[in-house]
Amino acid sequence: MNQPFFSGGGGYSCLRFHPDLKDSLLPTMFLSKACSNVNSPGVDQEGDVAEAEAVADAEKETLTSSETDDWKKYRDDDIMQQHSAIQAEQAVKVPFVGDKEPLSSLEAEYHLGNSIVLKKIKVLSEQYAAIRRTRGDGNCFFRSFMFGYLEHILESQDHNEVQHIKANIEECKKTLQSLGYAEFTFEDFFALFLEQLDSVLQGSEDSISHDELLCRSRDPSISDYVVMFFRFVTSGEIRKRSEFFEPFILGLTNTSVEQFCKSAVEPMSEESDHVQIIALSDALGVPIRVVYLDRSSCENNSINVNHHDFIPTSREVGISDVSKTTNPPSITLLYRPGHYDILYPK
Amino acid sequence: MQASRARLFKEYKEVQREKTADPDIQLVCDDSNIFKWTALVKGPSETPYDGGVFQLAFSVPEQYPLQPPQVRFLTKIFHPNVHFKTGEICLDILKNAWSPAWTLQSVCRAIIALMAHPEADSPLNCDSGNLLRSGDIRGYQSMARMYTRLAAMPKKG
């Protein structure tokens, strides 16, 4: 029987040490979550984030009695309500998945910002034509991957790829079953993704257009279910290969693999890191390129934009797998500290 | 709405099928509303709640299972992580650590585990938490025992 990890306790302070929630209770009400800041125009975002982090750190250190008294006024329900209010505020500003924008819009965002970032965007613009933003709600990696992948299938009509991923999804289902997950807890999420996969292939009654795909990606009853599907797949892969993932997870959070999956992978709105990307890419057999945009630079002042290709460790080496290792991944995401968007090559 | 209904119906069937599997939990759906459930859970042995039967009320939101059910104790209980007046429960899986991998049944199991392992450092019932934190285990146990007898056990005679 699957006995999921849990921990008890909390009361008024139950959510206090969840960094996002804690910061939302500060009197200034700034949104410290990096995701929330990324889309404000004309600001040096990384500076903002760094500042927010510095303030948050200071808060942690100087936990005076008056602050703890302030927190006591808030009940869990109030905190959760405020959290959802902040999410609603974000929802008005950015849809789950935005429209395609030329890369110049990224440049405009930083026009008063850091010169290294601006130089890097110049370098990026030689290779990439456009960006599609996603909402900074903690699900941005999964949401970007969802749209990027389905759009790729819609445009390529690659039936072999669809067969390939379906076989992997079947494996994921078996993985979850063998880990003790009750099938009825995840089957709806799997079914909904398979439905989307079939509908982007043209030539059937249920086929959908690009506009309809965008529409569905913005509809929580579809979009959130697909995100949750990826979370199940990711969690299953990490737990199945827990020996492989354990050192990475220990380095990140100092918790057990199971605890990590229960607290940082399966719950919605928990942000994703390298570990989740490796697991998802491996489980589904889909390569992902992540391009890094930050303020780091080389010693000799040369400007490079780094990227990392997540290439699945293929379970069975088929023809499609071999071709994939030679071609760059079809899905490219832009990573800025704390947030993922979709990038389009020229 | 449709999705949550379908999921709850599956849980309902599972509960019917597994009725005897977990004798400590009796989970019942409201006759007319699948979004309202109640559960009777047995106090775990070797705790002051042993021998008591505690009633829980579930209110399931329309966004279930993406959002957690709201659960509270209807039976009075003296426990650091349960509000003494409202029965509100402080448990991370009912808040930010919720995921659809949980079910109403497994939430009941988590609550039974919470009864056996109180978290005194973040109390919702400060009196209870303070007794534990000051090391007065006997004081905590006798208070919890008294309320179990008063509220969670059948009256004699």
Spatial strand arrangement across the major sheet of chain A: 1-2-6-5-3-4
Number of helices of chain B: 4
Average predicted local confidence, pLDDT of chain A: 80
Major β-sheet strand ordering of chain B: 1-2-3-4
The CATH class designation of chain B is Alpha Beta
Round the mean pLDDT of chain B to the nearest integer and report it: 94
- Number of structurally distinct domains of chain B: 1
Quantity of strands of chain B, as a count: 4
Helix content of chain B: 25-40%
Uncertain regions spanning at least 5 consecutive residues of chain B: none
Counting H and I runs of at least 4 residues, what is the number of helices of chain A?
16
Give the percentage of residues in beta strands of chain A. Answer: 5-15%
Oligomeric state of the chains in view: heterodimer
Q: Report the CATH topology name of chain B.
A: Ubiquitin Conjugating Enzyme
Along the chain, the helix and strand elements of chain A come as: HHHHHEHHEHHHHHHHHEEHEE
Main sheet of chain A?
6 strands, mixed
CATH superfamily of chain B: Ubiquitin Conjugating Enzyme
What is the H-and-E element order of chain B?
A: HEEEEHHH
Distance between the termini of chain A: 50 Å
Shape summary of chain A: globular
